[in-house]
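[User]
Protein folding is very new to me. Any chance you could explain this protein sequence and its structure tokens? I have pasted everything here:
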Amino acid sequence: MKEIKTQISAVTVFRDGARIVRNGKTELTVGEQTIKISGITRYAEPDSFRVKGKGKAVLRGIDVKQVTRTYEPEGDVKELYEKLKTLQKEHDAIEDRIQLQQTRGERLNVVMNQFSSEFGKWFSVGESSMDLMTKMDKTAGDLLRESKQTTRELENELEKIDTEISAVQNNINRIQGQRRTETVNEVYVSLDVRESTPLELEITYQLRMAAWQPTYDVDIGDERSSVKRIAVVKNQTLEDWDMIDLTVSTASAQPVEAVQPNPFYIDVYSPRDLGVVASRMAPSPKAMMKKEKAMAADADEMMLMEAEEEAMPDIIEDYAETSETLGGITVYKVPGEVSIPADNDPHPVTLTLEEFDSRRLYYWNASAMAEVVAQDEITNGDAVLLPGNVKVYAAGDFIGETYLSLQAPREKFRLGTRVAYDMKAEKKLIEKDTEKAGITRGKQKRGYKYALELKNFSKRNITIRVVDVIPHSNSEKITVELLDPSVPPRKMELGVIEWETKIDAGAEIKVTYSYNVEWEKDVRIRPPLP
């Protein structure tokens, strides 16, 4: 049996797993030979191992075994363990004393509260005096101060004990004071070597202790927006990936099944009294946009020691080669060699940078928002955008973070909700008539008239969607009627009115509307009308 050393040369990371490729070389003589490859992580799936190579030999088979190795402690740490036990006992005793002082303070507060509530009764019937109240206050105050002082001293002692415990534990870990075991996979490759030959082996296996999640940097422009795809890779395989060829795949290692349908039964609905569920409107989204003035560019050339110095070139950022496989799976081949250690930290890897068509939209909810917000509608390209976190920029300035759901190719989505400083909007109550003329007998009527004023301070025409809310009633005893909107609404449903209009650069428009609410005299409206 001959053991050869292998190194990880390539990794393909799936959304919930990875495929590892190891390479190794050796020299073999004629005859039946068994090659041993050891040190492979225990997380490798035994039935996923595949072997191929180059050389004058015939592959007979492979066998995978899990081996557990035991490592004994280096050095005598008995004294450290005894010290650790002593410190832990002191730690527990101090915690008990702190708890005792806290309980004592709580009981003193209870006694004082009870005494204060009963003192007035005793004093009014002459069974107590103010001197007793003063003495009780002083005594309780002294006891509480003493308890707090003792608690502070105990907490300082506890902090010192914790520091000593941490130091002892670090010493124990540094000299590997505890017995440990380690489980690894070993691969045995059986070969029939026809003649002496150099041999190159490639071992491939899969595991689940690696994954990646998409994240995006979106820089919004006037008509075009750039989307940078970033893969946040996690390597928890216990194997470091050092200078490897990295491929990122949108495929999943999870099994997929075709689910057979079950009968869908329906029946007659029997209503039940489920009570009234209160609801409230969620606050409107706001994003603060940073405004910074551009600084003057530095000189292209500088004279130093009467010699002209060339400007340093910009750093070049390479992007992955993208290809599409069966079923719409996208594969990103990252350029160059990449190193990702086996830890719990996320490691971002840039995949691609694309530009998409976009257009700016403005939105204002007159009943819930003090300011207009701007959003950008982006049209996706030919590849799917997987769900992930997004950092949003406008002309290079960071304006906020959000989450992007799954976006199909060429699907439109909105990002970058932020305050629109180039638009001003105001809602005004023009008229409120609580006793309108010509009231129908036995009924009450109230009328309202509002104006929505919109001003465009930008240097270009904009499109804005405005929504407002008027009362809506499901009761036949209350009626609501919308009257004479100056701009025809695009849609009205359940009292929610929506307008969409264009405003020229530097122009302003005013939308006016009114409505009446009429109800029977003995009816009480809830919630009350404004």
